[in-house]
Amino acid sequence: IESPPSLQSLGQSLARFPAVPTEMQLYLQQLDNSIRTLRRDDLVEFIVADLGDAVMKEYSIEFSDTILAEATIGAVIKASFQEPGHEARQLAVCKVIKPNSVTALTEELEILDGIVEYFETNGHTYDIGDVPLTQMFQDARNALEQEVQVVEEQSNLARAYEYYRDNPEVEVPEVYDFSTENVTFMEFMRGGKITDAFPGDSLSRARLAKSLGQIMTIDVIFSPSEKAIFHGDPHAGNVFSIDDPEHPYKIGLLDWGLCGELGKEQREKLIQLILGLKLGNTKRIANNVDALLDEPIPETPENAQFRQTLADKTIELPNEKLDYFQILGGLVADLAREGFVLDFNLALFIKAQVTITGILQELDPSYNRGEELFAWVQGEVSREVPKRLLYTIYFPKWTSHDYRTMLSNEDVKDVQVKSIGRGFAKF
């Protein structure tokens, strides 16, 4: 597993998957930032040749004696440079696609295609439990293809940098102008892997988990922007805890090879799916399952029954060990197995949330993202009361979703009725 990028990517996907034994998870988690296949001198030689002597001299670029980090496809080395006309040197990191990885990638992707086809045909003969291997192989393939798109990642980084510029709790590295099509120079972020933060301090780790859930889940779903962007590959090696005394729980987001976006309509349907899980309402799930697909399922009696069967199966999944996104991940896997083409961005978001679930549980085993999400919704609904009262008087607006929470008055009523019902049951 130390060399092929495809196996490294799969290992990262499995590293915090609940169905994987704990010992295996701990072993695979070393892949977050402990891959070692490249010599420092070979990496620097490649960078210098790509930049050219003129750029090296103009910015007086110097490199660290050791490689800072190595991932499945890329490697990162610490550097410093001096802007022309400035005396102070600036720290930077330089990310490069490993030449050997690119050479092997074409062959590996062909192998992955064959493995996917094999498991689609013979997967029932293996005792793999709840591990969606076929989906994971496909996700790994997509991720690897994206990682070699250097210019696209630079564009994603620039977009994410602007998106989070005014958020004091999030840091995205700035890309420097002397980057090339093969080499990305970016701002150096002071911090470390998020799962290593605040060792032995359970209160601070719990606070960090809450900050991560807010930024990566709640802020994305309920973003006031028409298009909410999100990190598509947030394994622990790509998510940092930033050293910032003024903002001790600041999150740093690295490696934007995979970047997704969700429009308001997609997020509105996603919250309806989550609400269906919360209320145990299979009809609500069946009515919104098309949000997960590239094309809606044609309206036929047979398909209506299929939707309902799928929703019934999904409702049966919830238990104490799974959160809403792990359950939705199972729904996505079921749709993929049935041959449906998934909506790329929404499927990517759900997969990213499943990855984040593992990080949240490692930081704070008691953290409940569902409770946090609906606690935020409850507070926001309170602030929406004047508008909701107006829409209640004007009854045709009773089912409007034109709120920050994207929940209609009818939705809020359903949640309240469910809560009251539970209260009576406890009594």
How would you summarize the topology of this molecule?
Blueprint: H1 5-14, H2 22-28, H3 40-51, H4 53-58, E1 62-70, E2 74-81, E3 90-97, H5 99-122, H6 133-147, H7 150-163, E4 170-171, E5 183-187, E6 191-193, H8 202-221, E7 227-231, E8 239-242, E9 251-253, E10 259-263, H9 264-279, H10 282-288, H11 301-316, H12 324-337, H13 344-363, H14 369-383, H15 385-393, H16 409-426
Parallel strand pairs: 4-9
Antiparallel strand pairs: 1-2, 2-3, 3-5, 6-8, 7-10, 8-9
What overall form do the CA principal axes indicate? globular
**Portion of residues in helices?**
40-55%
What gyration radius follows from the Cα positions, in whole Å? 23 Å
Helix and strand string, N-terminal first?
Answer: HHHHEEEHHHEEEHEEEEHHHHHHHH
**Which spans of ≥5 residues are poorly predicted at pLDDT below 50?**
none
Tally of alpha and pi helices: 16
C-alpha termini separation: 55 Å
Strand order in the largest sheet: 1-2-3-5
- Largest sheet: number of strands, sense, barrel closure: 4 strands, antiparallel
- Work out the number of β strands: 10
The fraction of residues in strands falls at: 5-15%
* Secondary-structure-derived class: alpha+beta
Q: What integer is the average pLDDT?
A: 85
